[in-house]
Write a structure and sequence with these properties.
transmembrane, alpha/beta, 11 helices, endoplasmic reticulum, 6-stranded mixed beta sheet, 319 residues, EC 2.4.1.-, 3 domains
């Protein structure tokens, strides 16, 4: 946010939209209140005195250790992240700057912000997402100018109008496809919900001890999914033979066979998109991603409601 507010604030000062001392006063009050609230609340949750935003800033920027989570080239935000996030909105935003010069004072600080963030090797769309609404302002300005001039003599404005409509419809279609794929992209969260619905509620397993592997934790599992009286472990580095020695009652794991455990259900996740000539034209193909296991020593628990690990649906559809 500092990287975004700095160029925005500089633009406001240069345009004399705000005085320097008013800016200092506003920023100081906001900083004191926000930092105080963050430290007070998060220190309670973490059980230690902590300012999490500063720790992340220190880790990512000062120590430059964010690259441990993967790196992308300098141009990734401009050539990959923004085109996929905005689709038709990005060319319309660039056109908006040309058609309406007043949008430049909004767009320029965002471009500076994204450029500065591009210097960090580790890149994620969420880092720059706060700048997208500002770019959409420029895109909306371009669309409004094209719409208001669509009946003017000559073919230029009518051509722009037709192209803009095609681009917006294409963006809507791509968004729907991405939404359908994303819906199948959280098998971990779905697996934990299924486990709770059949074991924590519908069976006699009143106090479960669940191990969640890395893939499951990365695909939808969070603390908000947990239920009372159940325990959860995300211990890493375990071999398949170690699970039965940890007294786990259940496992959510990417492996379909683990010694000492019975595989109860395979949870499918997104694999790929497949085109075909018949309706529906586009299929979302899934494959087993996470498997729900139960310890074999719970032999008195009912397994009748579980379909087993061979029963799963291989395709969804979008067409």
């Amino acid at each position: 946010m500092i990287l975004l507010l700095a160029p925005v604030g500089a633009t406001l000062l240069l345009a004399r939209s705000i005085s320097f001392w008013n800016a200092v006063k506003c920023c100081a009050i906001t900083a004191i209140l926000s930092i105080g609230l963050s430290v007070a609340v998060d220190s309670i949750f973490w059980q230690r005195r902590v300012w999490p935003e500063f720790e992340v800033l220190w880790f990512n920027s000062v120590l430059n250790r964010s690259s441990e989570w993967g790196t992308s080239p300098f141009h990734w935000y401009f050539t990959s992240a923004l085109p996929r996030a905005m689709m038709a909105g990005l060319p319309l935003a660039l056109l908006g700057v040309l058609l309406e010069r007043r949008t430049a004072k909004f767009v320029l600080p965002v471009l500076i912000f994204i450029t500065l963030y591009s210097k960090l090797p580790h890149k994620e769309l969420r880092f720059i997402l706060v700048g997208v609404p500002v770019l959409n302002i420029a895109g909306a300005t371009a669309m409004a100018r094209i719409y208001n001039n669509r009946w003017k003599p000559g073919f230029i404005w009518r051509t722009f109008y037709s192209l803009a409509l095609v681009m917006l419809m294409a963006s809507f279609g791509v968004s729907m496809v991405i939404a359908a794929a994303s819906h199948a992209n959280y098998p971990g969260g779905h697996a934990l919900r299924v486990l709770h619905s059949k074991e924590a509620v519908a069976s006699e397993v009143s106090e479960g001890f669940v191990h969640i592997d890395v893939l499951t934790a990365m695909t939808g599992v969070s603390r908000f999914c947990e239920v009372p009286h159940w325990r959860y472990s995300k211990e890493e580095g375990l071999f398949l033979e170690d699970y039965s020695l940890r007294n786990f009652t259940h496992l959510l794991n990417e492996k379909d066979s683990i010694p000492g455990f019975l595989c109860l259900q395979a949870i499918p996740g997104f694999s790929r998109l497949r085109l075909q000539k018949t309706f529906p034209q586009l299929l979302v193909v899934t494959e087993p991603k996470v498997f729900v296991h139960r310890a074999e020593y719970l032999d008195d628990a009912d397994t009748g409601e579980w379909p087993g690990c061979d029963a799963w649906s291989g395709t969804g559809w979008f067409g």
